[in-house]
Amino acid sequence: MTGLFSHAPQEPDDDAAGATPLPARTAAVHVPVDAEHAFEGFTEYIHLWWPAGRHSRLGVGSHFSLDRDGLQEEDDAGQVQIWGELGRAEPPGLLELRILHPREQAAPTDLRLHFVDAGGAGTDVRLEQSGWAAGRAGELQYAASDHWSDVLEAYARFMGAG
Asked: Cys bridge to 131: 30, 78, 109, 136, which one at CB 3.0-4.6 A?
């Protein structure tokens, strides 16, 4: 019956008690095109550059898409796995997604991509993922989200970076 009344002592959440918040995951690449083309390459052509052979929830032969429904992966049999829901899209500078973590059963995390003009010398693309759950669920989310540098490197190669 602990917790039924406001004056009752609250039991600590052993999973999150005293835990230090996890830092944001960040990654960045430079692509040799203007911000408009960089944004378009990321969103419209994701099916051509996403490294599904290394980063997939459905296995070999799947492909990715990104549209108003969000980031999703589909295999040859038509099975769909939603990776994230679309938050905001403000071309050519900002793309926000809420990344779903199906195995962890925790709230989505926030993914922001900034496409920043590098003064006529291409575009800097900066990614930040944050909003981890507390405790063990957040640790699992964090561990499952260590692929962004590799994903952005594949994107940069597709966009013509060396």
From this structure: 109
Please tell me what DSSP assigns to residue 17. T
Quote the radius of gyration of the chain (alpha carbons, Å).
19
Residue ranges of alpha helices (H) inside the chain are 35-44, 46-49, 135-144, 148-158
> Is the pLDDT assigned to residue 18 strictly greater than 60?
no
The answer to whether position 92 is within a domain reads yes
- State how far Cα 124 lies from the chain centre: 17
CATH at residue 105: 3.30.530.20
Nearest of 26, 11, 13 to residue 113 by alpha carbon: 26
Give the whole-number percent of the chain exceeding pLDDT 90.
Answer: 77
Residue 66 CA to residue 51 CA, distance in Å, equals 14
Question: Is there a domain that residue 17 lies in?
Answer: no
- The answer to whether residue 74 is domain-embedded is no
Q: How many domains does the chain have?
A: 1
> By residue range, what is the domain housing residue 143?
25-56+87-158
Burial 29-54 (b: 16+ CB within 10 A, else e): bbbeebbebbbbbbbeebeebbbbee
